[in-house]
Amino acid sequence: MNIEHVTERFALLSGIDSEELSRWGTLIQDACAFVQAHCLAENPDEAQTTRLEALAAAYTLRLYNLCAGEGITQFAAGDVRLTSSAGTGAAGLWEELLRDNADLIHTGGFLFGRVIT
Question: Which pLDDT does position 55 carry in this prediction?
């Protein structure tokens, strides 16, 4: 997995500038490590690597939104109520990419096996 490709995708998804991007390098590395640790392909080919990089960028965006904590989630003043879905776009993207790439990555769930006595 090429961390520079992941960084470029994350910058596109998040819209942050290159100066701020350097602050999130560790988060990008963590996301890459997470995706690699859960990858089912031992030696991913070029197409699979591109898909894994997209997953890592989406996971970075999800973590970034959790860390940044930006956006109004709910505000009320009298009869005026504002509600937004801050961060749900990143989580939705991550979940959709997980479903679309289920052949490459497994992040959890329940596995039932058998007990041999």
Answer: 93
Task: Report the distance separating Cα 82 and Cα 47, nearest Å.
Answer: 43
Q: Where are the domains of the chain?
A: 3-100
Q: Which residues pair with 74 in a beta bridge?
A: 83
CA-based angle 85:86:90, to the nearest 5?
A: 100
Residue 30: burial class (beta carbons within 10 Å; 0-12, 13-18, 19+) = middle
Q: What are 28-69's pLDDT values in tens digits?
A: 999 999 999 889 988 999 999 999 999 999 999 988 887 776
Q: What is the pLDDT of residue 112?
A: 44
Decide which of 79 and 73 is more confident: 79
Instruction: Report the distance separating Cα 92 and Cα 84, nearest Å.
Output: 15
Neighbours of 28 (CB within 10 A): 23
Q: How high is the pLDDT of residue 72?
A: 47
